[in-house]
Sequence to fold (471 residues):
Amino acid sequence: MEIGSFIKLQRVKQGMTQEELAEGIVSMSYLSKIENQRTEASPEVISMLCTRLGIELDSEKDITIKEKCEQWFNMLFEVNNKDEIIEKYIELNELMTMVRSDSLMMFEIHKIRYFLIMGELDNALEQINSLNEISGTFDSLHLFYWYKFKGNFATTNNEYNQAMRMYRLAEDKINQVNLSDSEIADLQYTIAVTHSKLLNTLEVIEYSNKAIDIFQKEYNFIRCAQCHILLGISYRRIKMYEKAIKHYNLARHLGELNKNNNIIQLTNQNLGYLYSAIGDSKEAIKHYRGAIDDEAVGLNERLIATTNLIKEYYKTHNFEKALEVIEKAKRLLDLAKNNVFYELYYYIIHSYIYAINDQYDQFTKLVIEDLIPYLKKHKDHGNLILFTNMLAKHFEQVGKYKDSVKYYKLANLTYEEIVNL
Amino acid sequence: MKKLIASLALGTLLVGGFLFAQDSQPSELAHGEAEPSVFNISSVSLVNVY
Fold:
């Protein structure tokens, strides 16, 4: 990192104006030139500016910082223990305010990923905004991570088109910088996940296969399993069910060997969905059951599996079992009050409660006033078709044909929208 | 001159339409399938199976 950019970054971070920093050392316009790398200042001037910023210039310490940074950057990709990551972060943050380091810019960029992992979205956005000001001085390697982490931010906000734009920009930088194979594979995997969210099935297959080649060579079996899950989803979407099942089984096998509950749960969830899609309710229920019983996995994942299980029991008219699962779902829902999808699960679960207990007034009120507007707003086409059909069928049974046609029509239009995607 | 303005306006409309179509794609699709996360992998030690 150039000394000019470094001084600018530190000054902006400390909320100092150019006038305050330059006073008594150099003129403001000269400081501006130093910061924008239009001139090379003498070592004395640099030293005085750094002293005013409260920073040491020590190359030996910088080597240690560089090593520590490398370790911390790797932790952001490989370690799930948040305490370890936080501890290292605090240590580095303190060091960076005292010593001038070439790794500072990289550290500042990686903070975006750090905040995202910690779930501190506001801090991540603030960091992106503060770095925006100096992003013009980034070199290609900085830009690679800058785009990648901005993509990660968009992914976290469920803005997959924006995320894809960022990942593409990062991908363009791969040829200009020297990156390890695992870094390249991680980006390819990330792109595959994003394509999957956008339903670009062929691209998912292409990128997952590229990434899996590298992950296998590096013995990164968890990422291999995650790629197999992506391939399973993709082959299911193009109706190559046997191939999809093969990939899911591979993923589960890897998950079991590595004792990774998240992988096993995710595989069960997706296998359940596949069997449900091909009309094999018995197998679907078996896999959904496997996905909800593990308490070690995330609440969100368990809620997805639970609502799917309720849907499956309802579909097969096994209302007693559905009510049993609903009780379980209610308990999970109580624990998930802060979940972003709380509203959705609440509406779905209560719609089934009303439907099964023949409380049709409450059912129609909830679905029409809350659930359908929510699903439309979030463009959740799958659930929209399911619930508008349920509602239309109910109106048909009670002879309200006008209402029935209205919701069948909505289901039909939504279906067409999916087909046109 | 008129042709230039007309073609510029048409071009802007086309680009605008394209960008709108891009952004109109569904941002969140909860279709029951769940993709793995782009973040976590695992702290569990890895076993060689290949």
